[in-house]
Amino acid sequence: MKKVIEDVVIIGGGPAGAYLGYLLGKNGMRPLIFDYSHPREKPCGGGISVLAIEKFPILSEIPDPKEPSNDLELISAKGISVMTFGEKDSWTLSRKKMDKFILDKSIEAGVKLIEEQVIDINQVDNIWHIKTKKGEYKSKIIIGADGVDSIVRKKILGPIPQKDLGICYGCFAVSDKKEQSCIKFLENKQGYAWCFPGHDHLSIGIGVESSNKKDVKKIFNDFLSTYYPNINIQSNWGAKIPNIKNQDFYDLPCAGEDWILIGDAAGHVDSITGEGITYALWSAELASKAILNNNPKSFDELWRKEYGDILLENCKMRSTFYNPHLLELSMKIATKSETLSKILNERITNQFPQHELMKRLIWNLPVIIKEYVYSKL
Predict the structure, then answer these.
(1) For range 147-161, the mean pLDDT
(2) In sequence order, what E strands does 145-231 have?
């Protein structure tokens, strides 16, 4: 019996793949999504940025309690603490419930979910052959939405280089007292530890460069023992994430005549904060436009135009942001300047891109100096 050749196959049913499926399904296409693990409580902070909330109304439809918050405690590597406040709320969500909601929406829109693991892909005579442990499928177009270890990326471009990877380690926990959102910068490391309170759990973890892999558990345990000694850990987790430090990475294509990479598979994550949900959904939205226009390759032009400069500038300014002397000075001043603390809050919650940070600091410098000086009088 001759196998059916699908129009579009999406490898990966996380937010990027599921949202792409939903958008294509709403427009009359019937792609297949291959995913053997979603929805799951993904190892990450579960934080949803202000930008993502404003740009993607589908997130507001998620029935799970969203635990909104506009306050964020920042702690420097040397222990300077400042409570920052923004004007807009970010959320902490259960990733399992969020991912399930978007995946269910895509299935309702006509997408078919194949709960099998893809173990190989190959292209023969302009047709993609997708192999699972149970069978083989064919498709005209293939989408890599399968995360940092994307099999689609490996086959087409090769894996994300080790130097452009980060590692996260953390836990889900509960506490007898109400905790607040917190980020602590790490000493001699470009990364941070966090605690994000959700509706019924805490997500606590750290994110560092992959070169710090051997130290990650010790750094995490030190953070826990210092700031959260009495929590009840429910489960531990570890994960790799894109952590792009090489600017040339963004010169690589993310699309061809019959393939597209989106989300983590494309490496589209904020290099400074590690936030990826925004770009997972954004890349899916642009990929849907390219596919519906029968021009998958145009995705490259679309993402570069809409958010490519943001990713590149964040990458360029990563070392400056994590400069230990600048961070300590900024935190010290922020303890006395409400204006600076608000700017830091809004940058970390992704209310503006990194390249605007210096503009805002310069524009508000007279007020920041005034607040700092007055606090000393």
Answers:
(1) 97
(2) 165-174, 182-185, 192-197, 202-209
Contacts of 114 (CB under 8 A, 6+ apart): 32, 33, 34, 35, 132, 137
267 Cβ contact list (under 8 Å, min separation 6): 160, 164, 242, 244, 249
Alpha carbons 307 and 218: distance in angstroms, whole number: 36
| C-alpha 45, offset from chain centre | 9
Q: What is the predicted pLDDT for the residue at 159?
A: 97
Q: How far apart are CA 42 and CA 7, in angstroms?
A: 29
Least confident of 91-100, 241-250, 295-304, 363-372: 91-100
Phi, psi of 38 (to 5 degrees): -80, 155
pLDDT at 1 over 60: no
Q: Are 319 and 359 in contact (CB under 8 A)?
A: no
Q: Angle of helix 95-108 relative to helix 15-26, nearest 10 degrees?
A: 20
CB of 67 closer than 8 Å to CB of 41: no
Buried b (16+ CB within 10 A) or exposed e, 232-258: eeeeeeebbbbbbbeeebbeeebbbeb
Closest CA to 315 of 365, 268, 277, 349: 268
pLDDT exceeds 50 at position 301: yes
pLDDT tens profile 2-51: 578 999 999 999 999 999 999 999 999 999 999 998 666 665 667 888 89
Distance between CA atoms of residues 146 and 72, nearest Å: 31
Amino acid at 361: L
| List of domains in the chain | 5-44+95-161+245-316 (3.50.50.60), 66-92+162-242 (3.30.9.10), 321-376 (no CATH)
pLDDT tens figures, 346-364: 988 888 888 888 899 999 9
